[in-house]
Amino acid sequence: MVRPQVVVVGGGWAGCAAALAARKAGLDVILVERTNMLLGSGLVGGIFKNNGRLTALEELRCMGGGNIIKVMEDSARHTNLSFPGHVHASLYDVEVIEASVRDLILKEGIQLLLESRVVDAHTVGRRVVGVVLASGETIEGDAYVDATGTAGPPGSCLRYGAGCVMCIFRCPTFGPRVSLAAKARVEEKTCEQALGMSGSCELNKHTVASWLSHRLDTNGCVLIPVPKYLVHGEMLGRKACQQYALPEYADNLVLLDTGQVKLMTPYFPLDELRRLPGMERVTYCDPYGGGRGNSVRFGLVTPRDDALRVAGLDNLFCAGEKAGLAVGHTEALVTGTLAGHNAARFALDLSPLVLPRDLAVGDFIAWVRGQIEMGEIGTRYTFSGGPYFARMKESGLYTTHLGQVEDRVAGVGLTNVFAKPLL
Ligand SMILES: Cc1cc2nc3c(=O)[nH]c(=O)nc-3n(C[C@H](O)[C@H](O)[C@H](O)COP(=O)(O)OP(=O)(O)OC[C@H]3O[C@@H](n4cnc5c(N)ncnc54)[C@H](O)[C@@H]3O)c2cc1C
To answer: Atom 9, ligand 1: which residue's CA is nearest?
Structure first.
């Protein structure tokens, strides 16, 4: 018997998690990525387990999605850090993690197509029947996941950002993002209100003063006060990651050690930065932004249900930033895992899984959809701050007690659900 096949488009955190979940379910999986590396914007991120993301990741682990979390943990440079507005954070090393994720993907037997950009989709009725690569080749599957993210294309960066500054998405080299859902003729909502740059930019660690590099190695986080005349308060409003849009992030340089130095502001003019202590000879990690801002994202929203099925199509699921205005690696992992699992369920003629709202992950997926349907599209949602973390705390969904998370997942009968083969 030929095994059904799931095709995942986009190899960021969401696409990797989706591919792993569909593979764990027992299906053949092809993961298609436009660039020469996995992880998308995860190549410049690094913060995880901060605030409610800890609860969400532990829920995912209890549901059987722990293999990818372990890669993050094994690549961590620092654990249990606090910085303004955030507690119990870990930082993975952005310089080393991609190779480890790639090892996991290949070890699990997923077929990985790098430098393969999907440029079109074939549909018949309510089904996607194939995706077309820029090379002209068509890849056919039984179910599909759109994990293409929301970054760029460069036209958006020119129009809404500081111009295309060759960020980690490297569109000029590999071609811009193409939305699979849009190519399958799904009407996505354009969403100018939500557009924003990332909340951070990256500095070359060996170019900061040695005392500062040493403090970063030891503490993971260093705050350097910014004199009033250099404070860029306007940057707070431009952040896609609103959990870092606090005054402390304008009044200080908040620096995190992710292998690079993660400067928690969308950008800071280089000449001004060099006036600050420890920064006299600093350079930005080009091509990640060059100090002029990067990665304009969230310009569109794909309609979907709580099983992450894209509206109007039976066999297309979405994950990560494509699943709504969700920002973060953790958010990408949890939605990716569910989307990949549900794609596998569809291919096997099983009804999709909807996570109950007794779980933070289930509540997040349903609540964000509701917010978007009510027109709340000027916000980006995350477990780590803003309105959703407030909701987690009020509703009791936020917990750091791992036993409580285990009981919660067991209570809804979902222990290891993502680790069991469906075949
Ligand atoms: C500079 C920066 C720093 C960040 N820091 C953090 C952080 O510290 N912690 C945190 O939790 N979050 C952070 N974020 C946010 C987080 O990285 C993202 O929200 C999350 O990783 C998105 O994952 P994704 O898989 O949905 O999308 P993406 O990471 O955008 O991945 C989408 C992938 O799809 C590929 N793709 C697109 N179109 C096609 C196509 N047509 N064919 C094939 N492939 C295609 C892209 O190349 C890309 O690899 C940061 C974001 C940025 C930009």
So the answer is: 47
CA 99 to chain centre: 17
Q: Is 118 in the pocket of ligand 1 (CB under 6 A)?
A: yes
Q: Does ligand 1 lie within 6 Å of residue 198's CB atom?
A: yes
Distance 201 CA to ligand 1 centre (A): 14
Residue located nearest, by CA, to atom 6 of ligand 1: 45
Our answer on whether the CB atom of 14 is closer than 6 Å to any ligand 1 atom is yes
Contacts of 285 (CB under 8 A, 6+ apart): 44, 202, 203, 204, 260
Return per-residue pLDDT of the chain as tens, 423 residues.
566 799 999 999 999 999 999 999 999 999 999 999 999 999 988 999 999 999 999 999 999 999 999 999 999 999 999 999 999 999 999 999 999 999 999 999 999 999 999 999 999 999 999 999 999 999 999 999 999 999 988 888 888 877 787 788 889 889 999 999 999 999 998 877 677 777 788 899 999 999 999 999 999 999 999 988 777 766 666 555 666 667 788 888 999 999 999 998 877 888 899 999 999 999 988 655 556 666 788 888 899 999 999 999 999 999 999 999 999 999 999 999 999 999 999 999 999 999 999 999 999 999 999 999 998 887 889 999 999 999 999 999 999 999 999 999 999 999 999 999 998
* Cβ of residue 9 lying under 6 Å from some atom of ligand 1: yes
Q: What is the DSSP string of 313-367?
A: -SSEEE-GGGGSSB-SHHHHHHHHHHHHHHHHHHHTTPPPP---TTSHHHHHHHH
Binding site membership of 10 for ligand 1 (Cβ less than 6 Å):
yes
User: What pTM does this model have?
Assistant: 0.95
Range of the domain at 246: 201-273
273 contacts 282 by C-beta, under 8 angstroms:
yes
Say if ligand 1 is within 6 A of residue 299 CB: no
My answer on whether 162 and 241 are in the same domain is: no
Pull the structure tokens for residue 419.
Answer: 């680790």
Residue closest by Cα to atom 38 of ligand 1: 177
Query: Which CATH number do you get for residue 351?
Result: 3.50.50.60
Q: Are residues 189 and 214 in the same domain?
A: no
Pairing of strands 143-146, 316-318: parallel
Whether residues 93 and 207 share a domain: the answer is no
